[in-house]
Amino acid sequence: MSNKKKALVLGAGGFIGSHLVKRLKREGYWVRGVDLKYPEFAPTETNDFLVGDLRDPNICRHAMNQPFDEVYQLAADMGGAGYVFTGENDADIMHNSALINLNILEECRSKKNVTKVFYSSSACIYPEYNQINPDNPKTSEDSAYPALPDSEYGWEKLFSERLYLAFHRNHGLNVCIARFHNIFGPEGAWDDGREKSPAAFCRKVAETPDGGEIEMWGDGKQTRSFLYINECLEGVRRLMKSDFIGPINIGSEEMITINQLAEMIMDIAGKKLTINHIAGPLGVRGRKSDNALIKEKLGWVPQFSMYEGLKQVYFWIEEQISLKTKINP
Ligand code: NAD
Known about the structure:
Blueprint: E1 6-10, H1 15-26, E2 30-35, E3 48-51, H2 57-63, E4 68-73, H3 81-84, H4 90-111, E5 114-122, H5 152-171, E6 175-180, E7 183-184, H6 197-207, E8 213-217, E9 223-225, E10 227-228, H7 229-241, E11 248-250, E12 255-257, H8 258-269, E13 274-278, H9 292-298, H10 306-327
Parallel strand pairs: 1-2, 1-4, 2-3, 4-5, 5-6, 6-11, 7-10, 8-13
Antiparallel strand pairs: 9-12
Helix pairs in contact: 4-5, 6-8, 6-10, 8-10
Bound molecules: nicotinamide-adenine-dinucleotide.
């Protein structure tokens, strides 16, 4: 263990964190994970897992009681549109996530035992006024200001980006920041109210008999891009190995409408369903990643197609549904 690089993954019980742990372990790291909970869908592969609340400075102190080569800060109070865009969770989202970031940075500053920190920001920081036309949204990294995110989740992410950059400038902390754009894959939230649209539609399609009807929030003409988890992790690892601080987009440029997303899933499932458009929380009208900067700085852009990724998620969710039905017939 002594020669192994050490990584600390905060949010290791979550979707991206638990996949990142697996990736780091494959690369030969010794990994400590911290989260409020263990990963839900597979046993953790960490060497050491601390169940604790990172809003508590004592937990952060304990989590960072030894030197780490790399810290990945993924812990946040977050979810899909049903959690982030209703307005009902705004105070929690801002308070909880900001506290985690404040505590972690203070611990890095005072202990001086961390070589580099990764912070996971979000495409939700981009101003609403650049995402009104669904066919031509703007998300180049330099378009973040003048700031006008459409959610408090986005405002907290923007504040925390600036916090990490301030600790870099004032305390010499080595940081890098990525703005994730809709990451999806197996072993993520799918039915707990925090799921994102790919998982939500996979669940609805899997649960509905052929010829039936599924509900969709809005007219389905809003656009998005989605990035498969393995590609996200590849981008994170490349960014950590580079000397580019960011913020940088990690997302896909393959833009589709939400109607097309549902159609793709029906195609994978071999079902023809009717879509019933209903009112609901929506987010911006159009969004996709702009990958010019990542191509320039890291010489890499993601390639894996949305359709291939959706197949993985659909069949995983189908399996989850049948497991649940066996337990609660
Ligand atoms: P997730 O909700 O699955 O994981 C976040 C984890 O943080 C959860 O396991 C949660 O229990 C943990 N957590 C929350 N509050 C905590 C606390 N007080 N103490 C300890 N742990 C706490 O989300 P994810 O999809 O894996 O996202 C990881 C990071 O990436 C988050 O910061 C998120 O904002 C960011 N991000 C994700 C996406 C995406 O599409 N998944 C897009 C943009 C940004």
